[in-house]
Design a protein that fits this description.
The protein is mainly alpha-helical. The protein has helices spanning 9-13, 18-24, 26-29, 34-54, 59-72, 83-97, 104-117, 127-140, 150-157, 172-199, 209-222, 233-241, 254-266, 272-275, 278-296, 313-322, 332-337, 343-354, 356-363, 366-369, 372-378, 381-385, 390-396, 408-427, 436-439; strands spanning 453-454, 459-460. The protein folds into three domains: 5-147 and 365-460, Cyclin-like (Cyclin A, domain 1, Orthogonal Bundle), CATH 1.10.472.10; 152-162 and 250-354, Orthogonal Bundle (Cyclin A, domain 1); 172-241. A hairpin with a 4-residue loop joins strand 1 and strand 2.
Length: 464
């Protein structure tokens, strides 16, 4: 396990690009529209959330399962696998990885309950099928199971938790005094050597006066802006402020922290965890939270007595004054500007998160999301009779108009239709009018045109 994100498998192997994600979903896009596919991933994340809650899992294992699910479908297609079996296997593996294991029979039984709520009959109820799927999942994940979530980065950014606790034995003021003392001693030693060298007569073969002047010029360039050796004033400020102690930052409202946390929970219904590092996602959530609170309050960064921040604004101001540093930022704009983050990347992540909510609202309205009775009534047969042509129209068309209703029950029907149509195309590629190149599944998928796919297990019928 890597303690550094930059040397971890998450950073080295699982931060991909938008074209790579689009290429991985080309097969599914033949049987659904981009909006439908986007809603399907929201639907699967909702199922993972419900299954995790029934298994009494914390948010971290649930978030890990969501990331495993999206990583798996970078190498596979929904129409060539059983996504319900895959998401149950993701929850099962994520619970083990996060050290909160659950029994495989409990996962199967609770998954049956969750899927029956959505009238899904496509899940195999045998524990051995889930155990077999676990090995295929681990193989496609390349056994890279360590995931860095943005929750801890959010706590570091908002000063609720030190980023490097126990790593530095000295405080920021003591460390600064020690470094300045060493720099003064080095400068004094260098001046003494230059003074002694100036009183000695030149020896035969020694450097000339011009060479000595050039060497002195080079040595002067090595000095910082304040005359110290090897470190300029901006570098010293970045070093002191980048220790991760939580000092020297503005006092952030608890409401901003809570909204940011809720936004991070929602990001697991998007692709941002495949595109951006966790600290960028955390900063994006903080930016959105600042925007939301500024619309509701005149002061988005007001001080509250119930704040859980480690260092108060008064302590940060006194520490910065002792270090001859500027005071902590007084506004959200100054706070965000203090981070060395590429702004186009940050705003691209913000846009990806913001785009989730209108699509999510049309797919599953908030009233249904927070009221299970209304959702059950909406999916009941009596409600289905009021729309006699809706199901038939969905089964008769591959692409639907954006204004047409597409909810969880339509998503479940679309998954079954995608799998059935894909199996027909794989069994009769010439009759389906597809080229041989496009009818083949992507490399690393669980499906294979030479052996076919078992729709109940989501795996190859014959594996060489």
């Amino acid at each position: 396990m890597s303690s550094s994100f930059w040397s971890s498998s998450h950073c080295r192997y699982w931060l991909t690009t938008r074209p790579a994600i689009l290429a991985a979903r080309q097969t599914d896009l033949r049987y659904s529209t981009p909006k439908q596919l986007y809603c399907l991933y929201i639907f699967f994340a909702q199922l993972i959330q419900k299954l995790g809650k029934r298994l009494l899992l914390r948010q971290i294992p649930i978030a890990t399962a969501c990331v495993f699910f999206r990583r798996f479908y970078l190498k596979n297609s929904i129409c060539e696998t059983n996504p319900y079996l895959v998401l149950a296997a993701c929850v099962f593996v994520a619970a083990k990885v996060e050290e909160t294991p659950v029994h495989i029979k409990s996962v199967v039984s609770e998954a049956k309950v969750v899927f029956n709520e959505h009238n899904i009959k496509f899940f195999p109820a045998e524990p051995n099928r889930l155990g077999e799927m676990e090995f295929y999942l681990l193989e496609d994940l390349a056994f890279h199971l360590v995931i860095f979530h943005p929750y801890r980065a959010l706590l570091h950014i908002t000063g609720r938790e030190p980023a490097d606790s126990g790593k530095f034995p000295l405080s920021r003021v003591d460390e600064d005094l020690a470094i300045r003392r060493k720099e003064a001693e080095a400068k004094k030693k260098r001046d003494d050597e230059a003074r002694r060298a100036s009183h000695l007569p030149p020896r035969p073969g020694s450097v000339s006066v011009a060479q000595q002047s050039a060497a002195a010029t080079v040595a002067a360039k090595d000095l910082g802006e304040d005359g110290t050796l090897g470190e300029s004033e901006p570098e010293r400020i970045r070093r002191l402020m980048g220790r991760g102690s939580g000092e020297g930052i503005m006092e952030i409202d608890e409401g901003v922290l809570q909204i940011s946390w809720f936004i991070l929970n929602d990001t697991y219904r998007t692709d941002v965890h495949l595109l951006y590092p966790p600290y960028v996602i955390a900063l994006s959530a903080v930016y959105i939270a600042f925007c939301l609170t500024s619309m509701n309050n005149n002061s988005a960064s007001r001080t509250r007595t119930s704040s859980s921040q480690l260092h108060t604004l008064a302590n940060s101001m006194s520490t910065n004054e002792a270090l001859s540093l500027p005071p902590p930022p007084a506004s959200a704009a100054e706070f965000l500007a203090g981070f060395q983050v590429n702004l186009p990347i940050l705003f691209a992540c913000v846009q990806d998160i913001v785009c989730l909510y209108p699509v999510w609202e049309t797919f599953e309205p908030t009233s249904m999301r927070h009221n299970p009775a209304a959702a059950a009534a909406h999916a009941s047969p009596a409600h289905a009779q009021t729309h006699p042509n809706g199901q038939q129209q969905q089964q008769g068309k591959t692409s639907k108009d954006n204004t047409e209703k597409f909810g969880p029950e339509e998503a479940a029907a679309l998954v079954r239709r995608m799998i059935e149509e894909r199996m027909v195309d794989m069994g009769h590629p010439n009759n389906a009018g597809k080229s041989d190149k496009r009818s083949n599944p992507p490399t690393g998928s669980l499906g294979n045109t030479s052996h076919g796919v078992d729709p109940l297990t989501g795996r190859k019928r014959a594996r060489r």
